[in-house]
Amino acid sequence: MALDLELRRKSGLSELRYVRAGIFSRIYKWISSSIFGGNWFDESKEKSTTIGPTTPTPVTTTSKNWYQALLDDEDNDGDRVTEANIKKKISSKKSEKRHYKGFKLLRAYLDVKKKVNDMLDLKEEGQGSGLMWCTPPSLNSSTDLLVPPDLMADVKDYLQNANIDYEIVIWDLQKAIAYENPSLSLKQRRALEQLNGHPMTWRRYHRYADILRYLEYLQHSYTDMVELIPLGRSSEGLPLVAVKVSVPVNETQKNVSSKEKKKWKLRSRMKPAVWVDGGAHAREWIAPAVATWMLRALVEGDKGLGADFKLLEQADFYIMPVMNPDGYEHSHTHDRLWKKTRSRQPEQSDDYFVAWFQWWKSNECVGVDADRNWDYNWGKQDSSQDPCDENYSGSHPFSEPETRAVADFLTEHRRQIKVYISLHAYTQAWIVPSSETHSSVDGELMEMGELATAALADAYSTKYQVGTVAQIRQPASGMSHDWAKTRAGIPFSYHVDLRDSFGPYGFLLPGAKIVSTAHETWMAVKAIVDNLNPP
User: Fold this and answer.
1) Phi/psi of residue 239, nearest 5 degrees
2) Which of 303, 376, 439, 470 has its Cα between 20 and 30 A from that of 494?
3) Beta strands of 403-491 (E only): which ranges?
4) Are 418 and 529 in contact (CB under 8 A)?
């Protein structure tokens, strides 16, 4: 361990990443011993498939200070505060926060197949150049790409020569980032906790510590309805937590009228369940925000109306607000557009030079696309085997503890879970399985998706496309909703791309849009539940 740390220090890598891993490990230990009563998250009870952090464990903060350390980190714009640094007054080399000054979000319009092919050629030729594709090229639609300032002239020339119409949606991405998320001071956070019992507002995007505090609040305030389920740990040691929301059996029976009682029935009836996850892609902040808002609407009620017992009589809910907490934290502290997990690939060769190259690549290029890592047609389309690419699918299916933990839970509860929804952003699309090809899909799946988007549009007239990802964009494989339908057998499995679509925001949807986005999406979920067991 010491030798490994020394080698990495000599390579010039920041010591900060080890400090971060240590804080996350302490978060895990603190939660296991403090919030949930010691045995709630016992390592001995974890599944054998769950692995610990892939990075060495450093000297860390004391467990009681982890939350304050993250608050200080947010207030200090990403600088990690540790007990060791405070005592020793050591100024370690800090990981530089990525800035996007002068980067432009460009939107190109593709109305013929040749233009799509031209953009695909640009995508292939531009690998490693700094071009970032926010939405893939697709026919009769638009594609968004982020262009560094030094490449803007070349990209414009290429598009003009290809007769591709385009517009600049965001002129300076760094300025847009600065306006996206209203700040929340420590004083304001404490005032919210005293007033509401938690710091969540749904007017801004919160860090993972705030989200965990909210889950803790729900568990302690609504013990009959809310159960926190540990699924394992992330690569850097953060807890992976899902929330089960259900009404007690006697409460369900109490609300059944005498006319509905059957003469012959099973003593116990297994209600169908709905699974919702968010944050598989770190930069898609709207997804965890919508997932936590759904929890609030389900448990406390939208606009203070109270829990929706009618809906809970129809189905149980499992909601995992942040599936990729490592990446989500990194997108807050170091790179707003970070997408992948934060895992590092292990060395696999005895050859010194090969092993050195693998070590360098694994540390230089971090993480896996959590929505290309699932074991269904893994690694075939719109996925890469280069660890430096954004759509890197991993060394093998379920290489990530995050995806493996969710897959294990879904498999274990496959008989009960009837709906799988993975929240993403952006493009406003309700994507059904069979995403690898343009082949026809289950008619009932499509019908339910169209019903859901109709209910969604009824709230604010927001329009969503319904279809496979191949029909809407480009073929892809290794996606979670495909696996959920095909491998786990969950009948209604969807990948949902939330707002924005043709608006000016891209991934930087303002915090003021959270509630409206969440409310309309919740209308879609309720419509699905209402039609799970038609009369």
Assistant:
1) -70, 140
2) 303
3) 417-425, 429-431, 465-467
4) no
What are the structure tokens assigned to 307, written together?
Answer: 């829990």
Nearest one of 358, 421, 426 to 395, comparing CA atoms: 358
**Binning pLDDT at 50, 70 and 90, where does residue 86 land?**
very low
Sequential DSSP letters for 133-175: ESS---TTEEEEEEE-GGGHHHHHHHHHHTT-EEEEEES-HHH
Question: Is the CB of residue 432 less than 8 Å from the CB of residue 445?
Answer: yes
Q: Residue type for 454, please?
A: A
Residue 67's Cβ-side half-sphere holds a number of Cα atoms within 13 Å equal to 14
Q: Is the pTM of this model over 0.85?
A: no
Cα–Cα dist 423/505, whole Å: 18
Give the pLDDT confidence of 262-317 residue by residue, as tens digits.
555 555 567 999 999 999 999 999 999 999 999 999 999 877 777 888 899 999 99
Strand partners, 106: 145, 168
Q: Which residues pair with 104 in a beta bridge?
A: 147
Residue 428 φ/ψ region, left for φ over 0, alpha for ψ in the -120 to 50 degree band, beta for the rest: left
Q: What is the pLDDT of residue 184?
A: 84
